[in-house]
Amino acid sequence: MKKAIVLLSGGLDSSTTLYHAKSRGYDCRALIFEYGQKHSRELKSAAAIARLTKTPYRIMKIKLPWGGSALISKRRQCALSPFVGKKGIPPTYVPARNTIFISFALSYAEAIGADAIFIGANAIDYSGYPDCRPEYYKALQVLIKKGLRDRHIKIVTPLIKMTKAQIIKLARKLDVPLEITWSCYKGGKKPCGTCDSCRLRDKGFAEAGLTNI
Amino acid sequence: MKKAIVLLSGGLDSSTTLYHAKSRGYDCRALIFEYGQKHSRELKSAAAIARLTKTPYRIMKIKLPWGGSALISKRRQCALSPFVGKKGIPPTYVPARNTIFISFALSYAEAIGADAIFIGANAIDYSGYPDCRPEYYKALQVLIKKGLRDRHIKIVTPLIKMTKAQIIKLARKLDVPLEITWSCYKGGKKPCGTCDSCRLRDKGFAEAGLTNI
After folding, report:
1. Is B142's Cβ below 8 Å from some Cβ in A?
2. Which neighbouring-strand residues pair with A29?
3. Do the beta carbons of residue B10 and residue B32 sit within 8 Å?
C-alpha cells in the first residue's frame, strides 16, 4: 500500500484532499501545523477530521517569531479585512509558510518511506498566495529531485486547477463532513462571513448550488 | 546596508560563511537550529560566534519526531562511525534538514526584507549529502522565484566549490576564531577525531599545512 503525508489545516480544501488521497488507496499520515494562528479553531477541525478518518496525525508546533503576516500578528485588529478582488498579495500571506510546511512533510516522508505528499493548494478561487500556484509545485518537484535522498517523492495537488464550486462537489462525492471543516480566518463559534476565506467558501457553495454548512 | 540571514551551526564552514558575509558588507542575522542533535556543544559554539561578531541571533527549536538519522537518533551507538569514502548517502543525513532550515530562513528574510541567505554548504570535501550540491541551490533559487512574495532573495553559498583546505585558508584570512568552532558529530570536551566531520576537518588542516585547533 502506498504511503502519503497529507497537509491538513482543517479547512475545506485540505480535508477534501485527505479524503481524495484515501479514495486513491493511499495509507495516509496527516501533518497539522500550529504556527501562531490567531485562533485554534481550525486545529480542532483538523484533528477531528483526522480522527474521523482514522488517519494518524501529528500536530507540529512551529514558531515564526518574525511575524510578517496579519494571520499571525498579535495585534487584534490587524488587517483581516477583505482583500479578494484587489491586486497583489494579501496581508494574510504568511512568509514562506507552505515551503516550511512542505519541508517538514518531506522530512517525514523520507523518514517513513512515503511515496507522496498531498496538498490542497488551489490556484483558481484562491487568495493570491504565490505558493498556491502550479509553477511553485513544479519547482518543488525539481528541488526534491536535486536535493533529497529520496528523489521520487511526489507532490500531489489534486485541487490546484479546480474552482471552489468543483471542490465542494468533489467533497460531497467523497462524503467529506463539510460541517466539521473550518475555513474562517477568525476564531469564534461561527464563521465571520466577511473575511476572504469565508467569502471564497460562500461563493463556492453558491456556485455549486448548495447551502454553506 | 544590505541585510542577510546566515545559517549558523557553529562549525568551521558556517562560521567562515558568517565572517565572509560580514566582510562583504551585509548586516547579518544568524539562525541557529536546535533540532534534536545528540549534543548541544555545537549550539554553544554557534551562539559564541554570533555574540563575538555582534550578530543578532535566534535559536530555533524544531522537533523532527520521525527521526530517520543517526545524528538525531536517541540510540547512543547509532552509526556515527566513519562513512567517508563509501558510496551513497551516509546515515548522518537528516531527512530534508537543509530544506527545513532554509525555509525558515526564507520566512525570516521575507519578514524583515533581507536580500540574501548565506549557507556554508560545500560540495567538494563534503559528507555525501544531496542538499549540499550546487544543483540543489539552483533549484532553490527557482523555487523562490516561483513561490515567494519576495522573488529576489538570493541564496549565497560562498564555499560550495572550495576544498576544506581552501575554506580553512579563507577562515584564517577573515580572522575566524577557529578554536571556538565545533565540527565533531559527538559532544564532549574534545572532538572525537574519528567521526566523518572530524576527519574532514583534520584533512583540511593538514592540506592547508596548518595545525587543527
Report:
1. yes
2. A5
3. yes
For A55-90, the pLDDT digits (tens) are 999 999 999 999 888 887 665 545 566 666 677 788
DSSP 8-class letter at A79: S
Q: Do B140 and A143 touch (CB under 8 A)?
A: yes
Confidence at B147, pLDDT banded by 50, 70, 90 = very high
Q: Do A97 and B107 touch (CB under 8 A)?
A: yes
- Structural domains of chain B in order of their starting residue, each with its CATH number: 3-207 (3.40.50.620)
**Closest-CA residue of chain A to B153:** A96
- A7-16, B53-62, B120-129: lowest mean pLDDT where? B120-129
| Residue B59 sits at the chain A interface (C-beta within 8 Å) | no
Cα dihedral B110, B116, B118, B124 sign: positive
Name every residue whose Cβ is closer than 8 Å to that of residue A173 and which is 6 or more positions away in sequence: none
ipTM of the complex: 0.91
Residue in B closest to A68 by C-alpha: B111
Task: Specify the pTM.
Answer: 0.92
Whether B66 sits inside 8 A of A95 (CB atoms) is: no
Residue ranges of chain A with per-residue pLDDT less than 50 = 77
CB-CB neighbors (< 8 A) of A72 in chain B: none
